[in-house]
Amino acid sequence: MDEARTPAGSTHPVDEKLPALKMATSGLQHVAAMYAGVVAPPLIVGAAVGLSGAELTFLTGACLFTAGLATFLQTLGIWKIGARLPFVNGVTFAGVAPMTAIVASTKDKSDALPVIFGAVIVAGLLGFLAAPVFCKAIRFFPPVVTGSVITLIGVSLLPVAFGWAQGPDPAAGDYGSPSHLALAGATLLLVLLLRRFTRGFVKQIAVLLGMVAGTLVAIPFGMADFGPVTDARLIGFPAPFHFGAPQFQLAAILSMCVVMVVSMTESTADMLALGEVVERPADERTIAAGLRADTLGSALSPLFNGFMCSAFAQNIGLVAMTRIRSRFVVAFGGGFLVLMGLCPAAASLIAVVPRPVLGGAGVVLFGSVAASGIQTLVRAGLDKDNNVLIVAVSLAAGIIPITAPHFYHSFPQTARIVLDSGISTGCVVAVVLNLLFNHVGTGGEAREVTHPLETAEEIAAVH
């Protein structure tokens, strides 16, 4: 499939090795885009456990370190492990709710992290074994399904950017203040101006430059916190089993296995999305290799005190916007993550970037993902009535957790792990509806429509 897209004797952009400086700066841009998403889960879970400031810093560094290792597995690959696409891996946010539930149900809080680590190890190993079977679901992901899911990925991520734009602490009095929103807007404007009036390499790293400029603007107003830099140690290694040997409890294992299924579903959708963006469509073999990297990275992560890993959808938007498709660029980003895990002082430099600055840049990044989904839907055959219904209902189902976060409040916690993820819910609905409308009992072509709300009389008149 790759050969059909790449002229004979040339290197596909995914496999292209760029100059070292360009790879380093572009890789750093990927790290900046996903940093907040990596550090948020350990901060939330660590706070629930009651870790001290030093232990919380250790846990965050461990998650950065394991995210880098998982990114290496995904981008560079070994054997049949790794999609070898420009994928950034990190801690999946889908596991936050069940992990905090495990913490709440553990009497001795010192046992909470070992119980979580044991459950993640088992779920990762089971997911690794299931990857060759799970990947066969690719035939149920035609453009009408992938386009819907990609669009949902972007739409689901946009509230994260809006939250960042309002400030770092929702409980603070200045959360959502005009100054925070102005800083986010200024960053967004800077990125847009750089994209519009520059060219070449400067244009490609517009997001990184926008975040640097936004941070500089924030300093005179006291909106950039340099405390993490002054308090951070220069060198620190995430010693294996720092919080104790893993413990294996059935309820926790079942909970994390459900999270693993959700994570594998989202990773499959992400790989299909990125395959379209980089013009190297992800086939069954690629998805199987990518899922092996996700699951193996998750199984190994607890050894170094990290959590379950998954592909980061927000970085797809960065690839789509910059058009830098080299997987080695993202591997450089993985190297930065490993270094930050080994050097807390370096990790703290990224933490200096104010949340509103990340929010302004996130609007561009996450909106680009949604735009990629819309481009895929254009090729999905929306002149067919069946496809219009699939898109309409799957998007509606996926947007429920965004617009009505408490919609499923009366459902069991296990079910809510899936239902509260708009990406997973929309993906399942799209796959099921595609089977129902386009496969089960279809005797011919789906009828053409000019509008999804056509009446039966209007359709009859057309035909």
TrEMBL record:
Domain of life: Bacteria
Pfam families, per the entry: Xan_ur_permease
InterPro entries documented for this protein: NCS2 (IPR006043), UacT-like (IPR017588), Xan_ur_permease (IPR006042)
Membrane topology: Multi-pass membrane protein
PROSITE patterns named in the record: XANTH_URACIL_PERMASE
Record's keyword terms, sorted: Cell membrane, Membrane, Transmembrane, Transmembrane helix, Transport
Location of this chain's protein in the cell: Cell membrane
TM region positions: 32-52, 58-79, 86-106, 112-134, 141-165, 177-194, 206-223, 243-262, 328-351, 357-377, 389-408, 414-437
Coiled coil location: none
Entry similarity comment: Belongs to the nucleobase:cation symporter-2 (NCS2) (TC 2.A.40) family.
Name this polypeptide is given: Nucleobase:cation symporter-2 family protein
Organism, scientific name: Streptomyces anandii
